[in-house]
């Protein structure tokens, strides 16, 4: 996950001169004790052969020779040019790394990284100290490996990572099955089936590819088989023991990223030296973000590496600091592009005891019944959209069909909201299962409405995620819905609006039977954590975003994103199709051409939750000098009252000649 394009614009400074001259080893091969080889790319200061340097490593399966090549060029040369060995390392079964591809975050993946760190630390060009960093998968890998405490690892920088693989990853958001996780499962298997590069891998590449095509794990079956917070998800969730991490940790988060809650929990829970940087960005590195202001991530990271990986690194650290961007209201036309606001700083310890402003729903004393139409949110943004949305600006009022809407009292004074709000409400339900979707918006003094945040809760997990607990039918019960974190300045004279729905297809897979809930708002309260006067100081802006020179690429086809929503006149049927064309480009260094397209189609018939269907169609192609390889896949997900059902096919071609085909059908019991 995460944008690999490395796209920039004219606002970002390109730096060509660095303190150190560098050389590149494009095919560093790191041996594992069992005979497998992990493939890596190394950027190294020329002087490191005489004066060893610390090594910083990005570890994920996104292929340094093609898919991540453009973005790597905008990161790794910077660290090498500032006196570090910078390494792009791939797990087994990815790119030119040998061995079978694996599921997410398995222990073998961690073991391999630990073994690779020891090998790196013993190179003549390495000082013996290492750091790990990365975005999304790379962030999670850094956290998980740090919890294993390899001796050389002294610092990490997780960017948009998670501490809890069940509640705050792409799979089950507070117990709600995210369709984004289904899409990721379809893409994940295709990623795992990509061939090694024949030119660099050498003899045996075809046999390795055919093995991958057969061995790629069926992760969707695995993920759907674990619908509660069990040992499968606890593994790799560092929230199980924050104290296991000793490496100094710089947590990087974005207010438009769907992993941001984990960043605040990490800041509160870690006992190692740690700082927090949180800005307006989506699921991107801050210096490459689509939402401005960007930040000079490379400069900030270099400072962190210098602080903790050099020989004079401090033995202990004073209270860490949180630097956060407090967003101002934004006109609809600029949302997703730029956010006005200001930078604030405060001690990490100040995050643990923020006061809360409690806003009551008592103004609406009468019970409100809610049963949201299945297609009411067909146009809403989906989870993890890499930034502020899918390119369409949604008026929150367009998502209020079939929702209970509460306008809260006008704010008499400005309020600097920071943290995770929550809504506690008493309700009854006519079904033992159901969802609550809470959207919080700001109604500005000019009556413009700006979406702020949202929260999801599977009502059967209202008391915890270890096991579902049916709702008592037609009995009042109090539930608390956590909303995603934000940092926002609410103006005096404005007010907040709450929208409460029971379905959010296709964001969340619907329950088999639609629940009708009756809200008793007289007992409802919205809790807003805020920054009290004097706690946070004005902070200087981070350094401006800068990058090394972009990679030598020839774009054959630009990347693009399209969204098509069709509803029939009666509103009974709806279809949403989103196509992400990652474009096609040729890498000048190797001559490799690569392209990828992803299409997601969601269809449903109103008033029939069992009609919901998701189709994920993906194509990846590689080509060079008359050689080509292509993989096509389609995954269809549906459900009946008792089970999720998945049909899939994969076809692979070399020079348009079929070399592999498989189909599968599975059924997984709904919990």
Sequence-ordered SSE layout with sheet pairings:
Layout: E1 13-14, E2 22-31, E3 37-45, E4 53-59, H1 69-72, H2 76-81, E5 85-89, H3 107-121, E6 126-135, H4 137-146, E7 153-159, E8 172-173, E9 176-177, H5 179-192, H6 198-201, H7 205-215, H8 219-224, H9 231-234, E10 248-254, H10 260-269, E11 274-279, H11 297-309, E12 321-327, E13 341-347, E14 356-360, E15 368-370, E16 404-407, E17 415-419, E18 422-429, E19 435-443, E20 449-458, E21 477-482, E22 486-490, E23 495-501, E24 517-529, E25 537-538, E26 546-547, E27 553-557, E28 560-567, E29 573-587, E30 593-605, E31 608-624, E32 627-639, E33 643-654, E34 657-669
Parallel strand pairs: 1-26, 4-5, 4-6, 6-7, 7-10, 10-11, 11-12
Antiparallel strand pairs: 2-3, 3-5, 8-9, 12-13, 13-25, 14-24, 15-24, 16-23, 17-22, 18-21, 18-24, 19-20, 19-23, 27-29, 28-29, 29-30, 30-31, 31-32, 32-33, 33-34
């Amino acid at each position: 996950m995460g944008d690999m394009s490395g796209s920039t614009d004219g606002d970002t400074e390109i730096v060509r001169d660095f303190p150190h001259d560098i050389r590149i080893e494009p095919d560093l091969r790191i041996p594992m004790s069992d005979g497998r080889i992990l493939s890596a790319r190394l950027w190294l200061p020329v002087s490191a052969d005489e004066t060893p340097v610390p090594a910083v490593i990005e570890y994920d399966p996104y292929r340094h020779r093609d898919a991540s090549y453009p973005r790597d060029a905008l990161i790794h040369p910077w660290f090498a040019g500032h006196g570090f060995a910078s390494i792009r390392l791939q797990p087994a079964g990815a790119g030119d790394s040998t061995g079978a591809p694996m599921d997410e975050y398995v222990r073998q993946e961690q073991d391999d990284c630990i073994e690779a760190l020891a090998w790196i630390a013993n190179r003549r060009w390495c000082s013996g100290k290492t750091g790990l960093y990365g975005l999304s998968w790379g962030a999670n890998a850094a956290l998980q490996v740090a919890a294993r405490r390899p001796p050389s690892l002294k610092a990490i920088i997780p960017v948009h990572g998670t501490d809890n693989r069940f509640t705050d990853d792409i799979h089950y958001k507070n117990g709600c099955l995210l369709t984004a996780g289904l899409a990721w499962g379809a893409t994940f298997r295709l990623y795992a089936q990509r061939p090694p590069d024949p030119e660099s891998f050498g003899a045996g590449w075809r046999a390795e590819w055919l093995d991958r095509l057969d061995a790629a794990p069926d992760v969707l079956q695995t993920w759907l088989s674990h619908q509660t917070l069990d040992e499968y998800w606890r593994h790799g969730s560092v929230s199980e023991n924050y104290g296991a991490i000793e490496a100094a940790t710089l947590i990087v988060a974005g207010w438009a990223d769907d992993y941001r809650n984990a960043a605040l929990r990490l800041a509160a829970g870690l006992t190692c030296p740690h700082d927090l940087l949180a800005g307006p960005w989506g699921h991107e590195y801050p210096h490459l973000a689509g939402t401005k202001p960007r930040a000079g991530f490379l400069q900030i990271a270099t400072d962190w590496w210098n602080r903790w990986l050099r020989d004079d690194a401090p033995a202990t650290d004073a209270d860490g600091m949180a630097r956060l961007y407090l967003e101002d209201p934004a006109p609809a036309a600029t949302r997703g592009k730029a956010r006005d606001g200001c930078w604030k700083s405060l001690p990490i310890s100040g995050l643990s005891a923020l006061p809360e402003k409690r806003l009551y729903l008592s103004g609406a004393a009468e019970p409100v019944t809610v049963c949201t139409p299945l297609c009411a949110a067909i146009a809403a943004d989906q989870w993890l959209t890499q930034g502020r949305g899918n390119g369409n600006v949604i008026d929150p009022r367009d998502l209020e069909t079939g929702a209970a809407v509460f306008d809260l009292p006008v704010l008499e004074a400005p309020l600097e909201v920071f943290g995770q709000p929550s809504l506690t409400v008493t309700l009854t339900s006519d079904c033992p299962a159901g969802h609550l979707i809470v959207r919080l918006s700001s109604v500005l003094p000019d009556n413009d409405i700006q979406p702020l945040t949202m929260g999801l809760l599977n009502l059967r997990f209202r008391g915890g995620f270890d096991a579902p607990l049916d709702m008592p039918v037609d009995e009042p019960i109090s539930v608390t819905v956590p909303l995603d974190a934000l940092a926002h300045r609410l103006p005096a004279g404005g007010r907040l609006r709450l929208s409460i729905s029971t379905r959010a297809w296709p964001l969340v897979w619907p329950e088999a039977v639609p629940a009708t809930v009756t809200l008793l708002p007289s007992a409802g309260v919205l809790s807003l954590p805020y920054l009290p006067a004097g706690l946070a100081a004005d902070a200087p802006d981070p350094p401006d975003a800068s990058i090394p020179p972009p990679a030598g690429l020839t774009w054959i086809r630009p990347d693009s994103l399209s969204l098509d929503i069709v509803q029939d006149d009666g509103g009974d049927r709806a279809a949403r199709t989103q196509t992400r064309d990652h474009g096609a480009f040729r890498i000048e260094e190797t001559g490799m051409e690569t392209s990828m397209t992803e299409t997601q189609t969601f269809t449903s018939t109103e008033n029939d939750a069992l009609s919901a269907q998701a189709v994920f169609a993906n194509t990846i192609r590689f080509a060079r000098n008359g050689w080509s390889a292509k993989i096509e896949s389609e995954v269809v997900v549906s459900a009946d009252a008792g089970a999720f059902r998945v049909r899939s096919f994969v076809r692979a071609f070399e020079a348009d000649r079929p070399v592999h085909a498989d189909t599968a059908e599975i059924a997984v019991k709904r919990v």
